[in-house]
Structures are given as C-alpha cells and as structure tokens.
Specification:
globular, single chain, mainly alpha, two-stranded parallel sheet, 4 strands, Ferritin
C-alpha cells in the first residue's frame, strides 16, 4: 500500500473508532495482535494470564520497580547496550524487527519526532502501569507491556541512527519533554480519580498516538523507520479498540 493510501486508511480508522460501536464493528480488517495477550476475536480481548510479566533483568538487579522496567533496550533489540536488558514473559509483539538500511540517514525533523515518540510511548506505559496498580485490571497490565515493547522498538532506531534517547535513566512519570511531563501529570491525576477516568485517559493517549504516528508516516522515511512506525500504528489501533470496549 502506498503512503498516501495508507495514511487515508489510517485516518478513516481513527475516525471510525472515535465514532464508537460502528468503528469496533468495522475493525476486523486490522492486523493481528501485537502482544501475546491481545485478543484475536472481539469477544476475547486478552487470552493469557499476566503471571510473570514483571520478571526482568538489568538495572536494579531484576527488581519490579519502574526504573528496572523502563531502562535499556529490549532483549534482542539492537546492540543490547545501555542500562540493562529486559525480557518480558509472553511479549511477542513484532518480534521480527527491521534490518538496518545501509547508508540511510535521518533528517533533523525525523530525529526530533522519534525522540518525542519514545517518550510518548513511555508515557502510555507509565499511565497504564499506574492504572493497573490502582485498579488491578488485566487490560492495563497487558497494554502497558505492549507499550514497553513499542518504546523499545523506537529505542532500536535511536540507537541505530545515533540519536540520544531522552527517556534513558528516567523513572516512571519523568519526562524530558515539558509538554509530555505536563500531560502525564494531568492524566495521572485523572487515573487516580476512578477507573472510568483511567479508561478515558487511555483512550485519549491512544488517539493522540495514532495522530502523531500518522503524521510521522507522511514523511519519506527509511524502510526500517517506516516499518516500526507501522508496527506502532497497528498496535495503537488495537489498543484503542480494547479501551473503548472498557468504556
């Protein structure tokens, strides 16, 4: 599918999903699940247990804290260098990451967008983890793990193109970008009010992610960057549908 057609389809999907039940009914053409727990049918959002999803290694000696959870490249994603490695039980989202494109470079604009994107994915994971700790919902736990995988895919690109990772060594709820910091603070306060407000915050996050990814895909991108952006776009489409079913 060419870029113009893909963007048009994406905009149509976002519009449909934002419209409620009609969008969910038309979602059968979306790509397959982006994590081991995501639904394969409308009647089963998440199929497997979250048991063991917090098992990790790296900074913090495998602790379950946010620092050990957020730092480092995902296992097998890139050089493996950084603050540590993470291994998420059952996280099978887009295991085949793209190969490097020989001789490819990034414009300043795309480098800036990727730096913003990695923190945006981190924000989603941080908010969903907060909601899961507050309400114990499996949907938040599973999609939080998927967002970690999304962030790791972007970190692969940052590492590959020698772009400094603004999310490195930052605790949950901490962001370099001031706008994202303010957004996190507002959404975290909303999450703490009620489960209903937490779901509303999640829907807002996914719709924002879709808009930003669609904007990124309008550019001429190296094939590996384009593939990662499409991976994240497909995941956010499914996450949005899952959260709307919770509303």
């Amino acid at each position: 599918m060419n870029r113009t057609r893909r963007v048009a389809v994406t905009v149509a999907l976002v519009t449909a999903v934002g419209g409620g039940a009609a969008g969910v009914a038309g979602a059968s053409s979306l790509p397959g699940p982006d994590c081991g727990e995501c639904a394969t049918t409308a009647g089963s959002e998440f199929g497997s247990s979250t048991q063991g999803w917090r098992q990790r290694s790296g900074a913090g000696g495998g602790s379950e804290g946010a620092r050990g959870r957020r730092q480092g490249l995902g296992a097998g994603a890139g050089s493996g260098q950084g603050h540590g490695t993470e291994r998420r039980a059952g996280a099978g989202e887009h295991a085949d990451l793209p190969d490097a494109v020989e001789g490819a470079t990034l414009t300043k604009k795309i480098r800036t967008q990727l730096k913003y994107l990695v923190e945006e994915e981190k924000l989603a994971g941080d908010i969903y983890e907060l909601a899961e700790s507050r309400y114990g919902d499996r949907v938040f736990a599973n999609i939080s793990r998927a967002e970690d995988n999304h962030a790791d895919q972007v970190r692969l690109l940052l590492n590959r193109y020698d772009v400094k990772d603004p999310s490195a060594a930052r605790e949950a709820g901490e962001f370099r970008d001031k706008d994202l910091q303010r957004l996190y603070d507002r959404l975290a306060a909303r999450v703490m009010k009620s489960r209903e407000k937490a779901v509303e915050a999640a829907i807002l996050i996914e719709r924002t992610d879709l808009a930003d990814l669609t904007k990124l895909l309008r550019n001429d991108l190296p094939a590996d960057v384009e593939q990662v952006a499409e991976n994240l776009l497909a995941g956010s489409q499914r996450h949005l549908l899952a959260f709307r079913r919770q509303a």
